[in-house]
């Protein structure tokens, strides 16, 4: 019996195994290279563009160590930390979306729609703003809050005769998110001292990030990416259906649990750094799947690069649209993601 090369389709679909076409194999190589170049370009723009525009030469000098200049203060103290946070948060949310869509076989699954970002944000507000605990506890609180919110959303969506349908999951996640958002606003009303700062963070923003906050989160972020890569083949098998996955030697329940925990961990890192960025984990996996096909390893590689691109572009646009003030990146991703969600939900309803 020979092994078959499977090329799964979008979440929620089952496609017959077949070999990848030469064009698809070429796309799997060229698209990541192009995205890497695009990410480098956007990263440079993130350091150069803002309320004070800097020539590229001054940016390079500031990065390489020219001190005691205005460019150094702007780049090293303000823009470099927010760019670094955007790289990690964008990649974390994008990979979390890939894992959740693969684990649930649901095109609407994402950290936002499962209530993970709202749960994580609520837990961080309770920990940092209400209990006045150190910010180092933020990622632990975000992980716990995201895990509880996702469990509630999936449990609520699983009730009833129809089972875990895409629409039910979206509605359940929206209900959990609304409930947690209301509780969050209530807590902020009781603690006005930290309300303004926390509300700015809850909108999803890279502004005011501290570069020192990123290194402690990198081990968990790296472990999450490694786990996602190891889960790629099991998720490919899961996309063919539970019976087929069992026949290929996989345990669907364990794969779903590991993928969900990894997604919550990555989303927790992102929320701790940038706040609840809306819809990024929904948009990027679909764009990546369009570019490189349905194999999860290819989608993960593309999403790791495309997620930071989308988040940093939103952050750059937010700096220049309303100068001298800024629009939070999370506001712009929500504006883009809402119509994207409606389109995917309509397609899922027709397919159902």
Automatic annotation (TrEMBL):
- List the protein's name: FecCD family ABC transporter permease
Tell me the membrane topology, using the record's own terms. Multi-pass membrane protein
Ranges annotated as spanning the membrane: 29-54, 83-100, 112-131, 137-157, 169-191, 211-232, 258-284, 296-317, 329-346
What are the protein's UniProt keywords? Cell membrane, Membrane, Transmembrane, Transmembrane helix, Transport
Cellular compartment(s): Cell membrane
Native species of this protein? Nocardioides vastitatis
A matching Pfam family: FecCD
Q: Which CDD domains does the entry link to?
A: TM_ABC_iron-siderophores_like (cd06550)
Q: What is the lineage of its organism?
A: Bacteria, Bacillati, Actinomycetota, Actinomycetes, Propionibacteriales
């Amino acid at each position: 019996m020979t092994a078959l090369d499977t090329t799964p389709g979008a979440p929620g679909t089952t496609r017959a195994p077949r070999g990848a076409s030469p064009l698809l194999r070429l796309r799997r190589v060229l698209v990541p290279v192009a995205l890497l170049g695009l990410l480098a370009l956007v990263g440079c723009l993130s350091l150069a563009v803002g309320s004070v525009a800097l020539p590229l030469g001054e940016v390079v000098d500031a990065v390489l160590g020219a001190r005691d200049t205005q460019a150094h203060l702007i780049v090293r103290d303000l823009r470099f930390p927010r760019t670094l946070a955007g790289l990690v948060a964008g990649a974390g949310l994008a990979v979390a979306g890939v894992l959740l869509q693969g684990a649930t076989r649901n095109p609407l699954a994402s950290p936002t729609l499962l209530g993970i970002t709202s749960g994580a944000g609520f837990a961080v507000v309770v920990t940092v703003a209400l209990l006045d605990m150190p910010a180092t506890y933020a990622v632990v609180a975000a992980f716990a809050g995201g895990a509880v919110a996702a469990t509630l959303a999936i449990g609520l969506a699983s009730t009833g005769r129809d089972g875990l349908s895409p629409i039910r999951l979206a509605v359940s996640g929206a209900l959990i998110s609304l409930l947690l958002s209301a509780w969050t606003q209530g807590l902020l009303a009781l603690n006005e001292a930290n309300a303004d700062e926390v509300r700015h963070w809850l909108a999803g923003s890279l502004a005011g990030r501290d570069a020192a906050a990123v290194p402690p989160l990198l081990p968990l972020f790296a472990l999450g990416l490694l786990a996602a890569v190891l889960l790629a083949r099991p998720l490919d098998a899961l996309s063919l259906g539970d019976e087929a996955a069992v026949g290929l030697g996989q345990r669907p329940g364990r794969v779903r649990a590991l993928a969900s925990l990894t997604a919550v961990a990555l989303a927790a890192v992102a929320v701790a750094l940038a706040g609840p960025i809306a819809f990024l984990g929904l948009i990027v996996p679909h764009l990546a799947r369009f570019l490189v096909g349905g194999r999860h390893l290819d989608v993960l590689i593309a999403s790791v690069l495309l997620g930071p691109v989308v988040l940093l572009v939103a952050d750059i646009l937010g700096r220049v649209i309303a100068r001298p003030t800024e629009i939070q990146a999370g506001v712009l991703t929500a504006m883009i993601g809402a119509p994207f969600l409606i389109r995917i939900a309509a397609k899922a309803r027709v397919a159902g």
